[in-house]
Write a structure and sequence with these properties.
mainly beta; globular
Amino acid sequence: VQLQASGGGLVQPGGSLRLSCAASGIIFNRNAMDWIRQAPGKQRELVGSISSTGRTIYADSVKGRFTISRDNAKNTAYLQMNSLKPEDTAVYYCHLPVANYWGQGTQVTVSS
């Protein structure tokens, strides 16, 4: 199994980023995917999840700003992040909950 996260970077407050998580070695369309983040000195936080059927849930801290989607034809999950805040700064990981498998993470920094 491989989960390759990408799309992180430095963005100003109020800006947007889209993270991608490309999966291989699994039957992607049968699996839920999570996005999880960890800020310096803080515990990991579940940002949100998308089920195999496309149902999504979100942490209260990102509701209305972040959107998770998936493209089963590309074996890829996405995290669209809008109206970013400095407190969104973290390493973002995609996670395969059925196997507790983690991708390598991508850094998102929100700063002016």
